[in-house]
Design a protein that fits this description.
Integrase_DNA_bind_dom; 7 strands; DNA-binding; DNA polymerase, domain 1; elongated; Integrase_recombinase_N; DNA binding; DNA recombination; disordered C terminus; 3 domains; alpha+beta
Length: 398
Amino acid sequence: MRATKRLSSQFVRSAPVGKHCDGAGLWLVKRDDGGAQWVLRVTVHGRRREMGLGGFPNLSLAGARKQAEHWRSVAADGRDPVKEREAERRAVQRADISLAVLTADAFEARKAELKGDGTAGRWLSPLNIHVLPKLGKVPVTDLDQRDIRDTLAPIWHTKADTARKALNRLSIVMRHAAALGLDVDMQATEKAKALLGKTRHVPKNIPAMAWADVPAFYASLEEPTLTHLALRLLILTGMRSNPLRNIRLDQIEGDVWTVPADAMKGRKGATDAFRVPLSLEARRIIEMARPHARNGFLFPNTRKGVISDMTLSRHMERRGLAARPHGFRTSLRTWLAEATDAPHEVAEAMLAHVVDGGIVRAYRRTDFLEQRSKLADRWADLATGGAGQVVNLAGKGC
């Protein structure tokens, strides 16, 4: 048996710089700055583990020996003392297992999967607004389907999409809690959905402008203001408002605008940046907007950041139009279906939609940029008052 208790209290108080063994893996490490640390070395499953026990004199020689004895017994049972101590610390931190605490923990774990690390706060919004004010203090282990039903019932039929998102987020939080070892009802959200029944809410599509009316509207955007220029580029590219409003000069190279993957929405399963072909007209609009650029952004706000989505929407509202900026994506997609022979996957790629499964995409390593460039040119031709002829992707336009 290894010798133990080699050190004395008197020696520990005046120990020179260096490592001093008390026996059975317990060491006193004296530093140059005069401080000292207790360290325990044990072997678990053939692997040496080293853990700090505390500093001297806050942890006395007797205290260090007591801790070392405890952790040696843990190692003797075949358990890693470092992991065991970490688990104990997590258990203490989880003493508060309220829904609010577990929601924050689940969000933190998922941040890397969310656009911009979830800084926009949209992932949490349905819970923060409609669930946590009522259930935030309830321990997740006590949460059942009746609690969830009673909380979401007021918005189940009036704000169906928000309620659905809240239910989905709750399900994620419950799975996160279960993964932490908490005894939660994994079926609580599904049972709550059954109790709530089928929603009466009928979703409404965003109003879109008929593609035949786009040229007249495009021509009306004749002023070189940021609003007019942004709307023109929005129409020409078919992109969503967010990446368009946040377009940066360093994302544009020649006739291609490369949108970072984390700025794209609705491309689940896609991890690459998205290339947007720029027609001659789109490049002309970009050049007109360049004098407005600030801090690298092509469409900056007057104070900071970029122009808001409401700026574009309100412009169309003031014009008495039912259509909204996002609706131009529908205009483009309808034109592609009615006036071109673009294959489905190419037409969907024009709107940055992800089609087919991951295996198919893995083998089809193309973003159809060349075909989309031709379509973008014809769409720009139509928008600027040209014929926007039927496009034959197999040959020349007819």
